[in-house]
Design a protein that fits this description.
about 140 residues, two-stranded antiparallel ribbon
Length: about 140
């Protein structure tokens, strides 16, 4: 059993390889960015992720990375850096993609254009969020006609 302050997981299956496998391909629920993502590899060791430490999902599941904000490192615009904690990487049903998927950044929201998590989405402009809101408003207007 693996214990984390926020949840308990009875069983996780990890890839048996100790070598770094190729980058994880695009997933509909979440994405792994080897160039940008860092993992917690030990106490205060934020460094390159070891994909072999991520759980192996079933064929009808996909990984969700549930990135966490750091409290010791910030960008110039005061947005915190994020990291992946292996204990928080979980397999979610693939059909969750249609319901908004998982939370790539907890707390916060992923900004595609900047390839990073943004802690306070209400105080930050990300073009893809504005486009998504516009599309939702247009669909709602069409339903009203």
């Amino acid at each position: 059993m693996i214990y984390s302050p926020s949840f308990t997981i009875e069983k996780l299956t990890f890839r048996p390889s100790t070598k770094h496998p190729p980058p994880i391909p695009y997933k509909k629920i979440d994405r792994f960015y080897p160039k940008y993502d860092v993992c917690l590899n030990g106490p205060n060791d934020y460094s390159e992720c070891i994909p072999a430490n991520f759980p192996q999902c079933k064929s009808n599941e996909q990984l969700c990375y549930n990135r966490l904000n750091r409290r010791d490192k910030f960008y110039d615009d005061k947005v915190p850096h994020y990291f992946i904690d292996y204990k928080r990487v979980l397999c979610y049903p693939s059909d969750w993609a249609g319901w908004g998927g998982c939370s790539s950044c907890t707390p916060g929201r992923w900004c595609n254009e900047e390839q990073r998590c943004i802690l306070d989405e209400g105080q930050y402009y990300c073009p893809s969020w504005a486009e998504a809101a516009k599309t939702r408003e247009e669909r709602a207007a069409q339903k009203g006609k």
